[in-house]
Amino acid sequence: MAALTPISRKPMSVVLPAVAIAGGFLGMFVGAGQGSVLLGIVIGAALMAGLAWVYVNVLDNERMARWITILGLGALGLLFAGVTGLIVGLLAGWFFAFFIFWLYEGRYRQKLLPYMTGQQVFWHYAFRVICGAIFVFLITPILVVLPLSFNAQDFFTFTPEMLRLDPEGYSLKHYRDFFTNNEWQRSFKNSLIIAPIATIISVSLGTLAAIGLSQSHVPGKRAIMGILISPMIVPLIISATGMFFFYSDIGRFLEGTLGMDKNFVGYVKVILAHAVLGIPFVIITVTATLVGFDQSLTRASANMGAGPVRTFFKIQMPLILPGVISGGLFAFITSFDEVVVVLFVGSASQKTLPWQMFTGLREQISPTILAVATILVVISIALLTTVELLRRRSERLRGLSPA
Amino acid sequence: MTDATQSGPMLAADGTPLKKSLARSLRRRKLRALALIAPLLLFVLLSFVIPIVSMLFRSVENGIVAETLPLTVVELKNWDAESGELPDEALYAAFTKDMVVAIDEKTHTRLGSRLNYEQTGMSSMFRRSGRQIKKLDPETDGPFKDKLIDIHDGWGDIETWRTIKTHAVPITNGYFLNAIDMRRTPEGAQAQPEDKQILIKLFGRTLMMSLIITASCILLAYPVSYLLATLPMRVSNLLMILVLLPFWTSLLVRTSAWKVMLQQQGVINETLVWLGLVADDARLVIINNQFGTIIAMTHILLPFMILPMYSVMQTIPPSYTRAAKSMGATNWTTFWRIYFPQSIPGIGAGSILVFILAIGYYITPEIVGGTKGVFISNRIAYHISSSLNWGLAAALGTILLAVVLLLYWCYDKIVGIDNVKLG
Predict the structure, then answer these.
(1) Which of A204, A232, B214, B215 has its CA at a distance of 20 to 30 angstroms from the CA of residue B35?
(2) What is the pTM of this model?
(3) ipTM of this model?
């Protein structure tokens, strides 16, 4: 359908202004680097419009024009701003070589419906640019943190050395600080103790309950579901407030009456609190997996003489495993990420990684936070990939079952 | 078919009536399902529901005055707070007796700080008088009225006794009145003095900012969800990563990223200064105020708006809009009359979700909000950890919880709890 749209060359009165605007935009940044924004805009616009005119009217050879633009702008960039300029120039050259002929040959209509009016075509691309800007908004904070964590200075902004791509400007010292500093290491260890145990509690209890909930004829199903999901609905600050009062009483009882170790009690309190917070995620993902589960499989297994435990481990568990694991990952990340509750329930010896980051951000802001943030981003990318793969596997498995 | 000719009820294989046998098996299945749910339900009830309920109770509980000063409270019942006269000697004697016991148990300072929430100066009065009242012997040293007034003028002030009498009740609405900028007085509920009225304003600001955040999330999420829903599956799955990556990234990472971006010496200001759009000495103040909170929270909550919108828009058949266009509708009419009404459920679901999440946020406003951009939750945290006015914190929490539960009830009516999806 799309390939049938006929394309025709566009007049210069359309091509030149559009290219000039884009050139002016690029010129603004170059001009800012050289000291005069206005001059940059004017020169950029004139240069690009001139190039477009020459390519179309004189040269008329797209391949050659492309190489001229890429190499020419790359050389200009190298002249003005070193290695960074070279990279920016090459990219800009590639873009303009594409953009000029894209406009002139009318290729922008190629993949659109043939009856669209000019206004509709313009709106189509404007809409994409807007969406692109929103995607940039979504992703920028993460993209800013990654390079800044390699900053050789203790600043939170790009130093001139970094912009010049000078190796001097980059270092791993914030990572080194994270791996050698006792405070950070202790909180990292605490996170690694608390999150897995809390996950195990919420996954084991949650999976059992989800299986119970997915059966028919459960009295008061909605009410039970509501209670089990409530930790996700109630704002964290309120959960934290409630738990603060409750667990300080429990803690006093365990330490005072039963004479348990103070440190141990502290961990128990935080782990229990985090396990509760993770439960809704396990319940939701596992019940979602169980919706597609074919109950006749368990009946068949019972028919062949397997007890309920054997049926669960041999038949049900392997099929719902993807849901259980992704629920577990959600629970893990909830606990691994949680600040408010641990801030209220825990004491200084249970300081977790997010807590350490939180105090760092509030009081003595140190760039090590950015290194930690980068490590956490990498961890979350790994988890995201795992969940996605599991979801696909689960869909495949469900596609095979006759449900 | 011998059963049909029998006159009795239908029998199962073991001879019991079939109806009974079926009921028994159903009951057994119900019990088994409940047995599977029970451990978790107990766990959640014990470690989540009970704490929340006990917090609700704490917002009205006020046993401290009657527990610390039991004799005084009995005597105060006989004193007419409206009479304009100081209480008689019997009350002062009872008070001294109570105080000597309280000082022994070191509970008088706690009572002092409790009463200090109602009338400033009480805390120091209790603490300072404590040292001297300790030396008195309740049996022999009477009469006490003049001695106490000698120790501290406050004991000769009618207001002191009126405050103690007002707050001697075991169940009080005082914290809730405080939470809405009023206070409990002998004459009933009254407005707080002007300079102490901050909480209503804070509630209003929390609601207002949550609304602004929700609105800006709708504005940003709508085009993106539309694009994701209309692009071919392969491309939209790739673009979805850009939405899911922030969703999965730690909240603190994103908050710290915004702190880095918005600072005076931060990335945004540096870029603007470099471009010459902003003078170096007039850098934008975009952190530690409402703007900082709004922009950071919009970014953080945006995925929660995109995901439900996207899943609704995916189900809208493209043939409807094509049909409308083929019948001569303009682009705008097609969008406004055909597409938009069908996407409203997605907007509703996303908005309530974002609003519920925004209204109880604590971390982000605390870090990028400064003093102007904080929410009611920051005030709750302040009362828990700094001012130690736990009753007021519990009352504020109760009000917030009521608002959230109401919204959640709406969410359940519109979307349904079962339709909550993750990732």
Answers:
(1) A232
(2) 0.84
(3) 0.84
